[in-house]
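Anyone up for a design puzzle?
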């Protein structure tokens, strides 16, 4: 699949976001090492702390699909500078990533910037520390 179609799929995920409280929709697309794709959106709740981030939804879907390696992850919001994962989601991404994982920060018009895991979450804690 082309980058253009990845952007279209991420945008479609963002359009599904349930965000009546923040009005800040986020869409995520994960491409795994096997080339399969999983998407997610944020889902809020009247009890605010119960809301789920889009990254968490997409990662849960990937794990349900029997996969554990993120090759590329697209994160989109409506902002011109693109989506940026929150601290908790950086750690979630870290669990299923390696030094080759690409994190693509996207606006609806496309990829605005990209980074690797060390740039997203420097000096990170992971399974090998346990
Ligand atoms: N949000 C995400 O879905 N992912 C992030 O990495 C940043 C924050 C959501 C949570 C909430 O629904 C809304 O964005 C505003 O914080």
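Challenge accepted. My sequence:
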């Amino acid at each position: 699949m082309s980058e253009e179609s990845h952007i279209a799929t991420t945008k479609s995920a963002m359009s599904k976001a349930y965000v009546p409280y923040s009005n800040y929709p986020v869409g995520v697309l994960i491409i795994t090492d096997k080339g399969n794709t999983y998407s997610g959106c944020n889902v809020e709740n009247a009890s605010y702390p119960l809301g789920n981030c889009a990254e968490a939804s997409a990662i849960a879907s990937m794990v349900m699909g029997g996969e554990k390696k993120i090759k590329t992850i697209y994160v989109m919001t409506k902002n011109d500078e693109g989506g940026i994962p929150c601290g908790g989601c950086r750690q979630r991404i870290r669990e299923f990533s390696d030094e080759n994982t690409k994190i693509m920060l996207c606006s609806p018009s496309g990829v605005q910037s990209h980074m690797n895991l060390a740039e997203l979450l420097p000096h990170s804690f992971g399974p090998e520390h346990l």
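A detail worth pointing out: Strands lie at 27-32, 37-41, 70-76, 102-107, 110-115.
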